[in-house]
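REQUEST FORM: STRUCTURE PREDICTION
Request ID: SP-0412
Submitted by: Lab K.M.
Chain count: 1
Length (residues): 196
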Amino acid sequence: MNFTHFTEKKAAQLLATQSRRADINAITLCDIHVEMGKFIAYEMLEEFELTTIDIQHVQGIKSGVDIANKDKIVILPLMRAGLYAAEGIRSVFVDSHFIVADEITKTTYDFTNQTIIIVDAVINTGKSIENVLHTLLAFNVNKIIVVTLILQKEALQLIRKYPTISFYALRISENKYVGTKGTDTGNRLFNTKKNI
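STATUS: Completed
RESULT:
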């Protein structure tokens, strides 16, 4: 299957536990989401080619590696809840383009030959992701990768529908709980738990 998750990895378990705490403030939660995005980004580097570069070393010019074709990578956070995980991914793919998914149907972006990394905090049913996938699949993209921090077990059927797309999740959840108001992930991240 074109799906990788880190549910059993100790680092993922620690990060997930921190993010699930109800007694942390919005800024701390944002920082945790950035760290989770960064963790997944390093893990999914296996899908990308590296290229040799010259670096200034303390002993002079030496060779190192960098991500190849960085200018052909687009990070696409879905809704506001995916922004901080996307920032974590962006900290690894530093020269990538960053486009909020809400913008793709309102503008004339050309995703031809691009590698698209779609980022969402939680995939419950997959309907939101599917809307974006339908838009992107109309382009001749190089590759599409979907990243989420939490994938509800029922959403595994979504993955089976798209065998050419890679999916990554920090963890799979069997808890069918969907947050609302003060428990919604976006509201927790942006401290909008109450009507302003």
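NOTES: The radius of gyration is 17 Å.
Reviewed by: T.R.
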